[in-house]
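ENCODED BACKBONE
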Amino acid sequence: MCQLVKIDKEREEYKPFTMLTQFLLKFFNSYSMSKHYLTGLSALALTAGTLSSCTEKTQTERPPNIVWLIAEDLSQDLGCYGNSNVQTPTIDSLALNGKRFTNMYATAAVCSPSRTALATGFYQNSIGAYHMRYPDSLKPALPEKVLPIHRLLAENNYQTANIKSRPSTGKTDWLFKFDPKTYDFEKWDDIDKEKPFFARVNFSLTHRGFSRDSKRPVDPSKVNIPPYYPDHSVSRRDWANYLESAQILDNQVRQVIKQLNDKGLMENTLVFFFSDHGRPMTRGKCFLYDSGLKVPFIAFASDSKIKQRYLKGKTDDRMWSMLDINATTLALAGVKGYASQGRTFIGENAEGRDFVYAASDRIGEVFFKSRTVRTKKLRYIRNLRNDLSVNEASTAYRKANHPIYHLIKALDEKGTLTPAQKQLVTPIPPEELYDLESDPYETVNLANDPAWKGKLAEMRKLLDSTTEEIGDLALGKDPQEIKDAFKQYGIGSEKRNRERIRKLEASVKAKL
């Protein structure tokens, strides 16, 4: 089992859990099967049984086309998830006429690691590709037998497209070496609608800087601010801007759905809408709370046959990992012989997860080292790097773009933060435990409460067993070239953002 260890602050070193080669040999030679990941023929047997139970598929029936609509930095801050301050009629309509998932979680709270896991079906720290912003020269190759999803689909006679026509950006942002030319197409016009296809559409929203909605402005006085933020005009304006950006995103989703309809590509097509991780806010993005990990996920089809076959029911409240988006897509396409840590969520026999897992490692110049497991009731976080506060763990980019960072810092200097807000400027603890039923904002840490000693032990054990099971390759000491590369990244980022940081800080202080 992996035990809680403290960082050697001078050497930035952790006790290694395992070596990459040892894990890969063990994993691929044994084809291990467990509740938390499925591989090889065992996975195929369950997948085939799951999908055959929900369809009367014939030998000649064409598998569905699958389209991923990927937003950036978006939590469940949409009308269909109960937010009355935002107008998202297109996405709400997808949910109303499709299936809305209420418990979908990213494997990381920042884009590149999360997208790496999504593309491969493996936790990013299981395949050695986990630090955000490797230079290209240091990006690892994928282990043998692990392929990005579009490659697996192409081998199964699917056309693959990474759409780059507006409003899609074509962003992949993976932490491993790959050839972007391995996609077949970049435009809808190039797809043959008589053959099955997989297409990914990436929206830049709701990433910062926020796109404002001048036609439907959000009233800052009406937004709901989490209790760990100061209730101030600065934080309210920032939150309103984020929601307006979600409204512009909704317009872009409408454009893409129209493009699909106009090109005749919605027939036999299943659309998945989701985000890569949670909202781009302090204690959201980069951090292992629901605000950073819990994302919207909607499955939609306008084709009545596809809808009847795959989208029974309107809401799915079971727990799922974004790894399962990968596994479900491959299963729907009939891909066989692949390895995955995901499971399928479509089908009468689809089994939800008892818990989800996520990890955080280097993000730019900030050295994170945290792991979490979350059940429906509890979240446990282990912070192996715990000499920084949430606010201190801000990259230069965040300091240049997050007004709430400067607001918290300034109000702390004035001594006016509430206890919940004060936690953002207090070094994060080695362990965190939250009762999500009574504390949905995760502000009351129960790790040191004697009444929760038993639950704490259970969650520790759960994280230990998961760490061993998935083969966490990120717990060892980083090579010196990695340390040097991220140090230089930080120096360059601080230099690039220095003036913007100064201006934003002055702007915030002028409003106090």
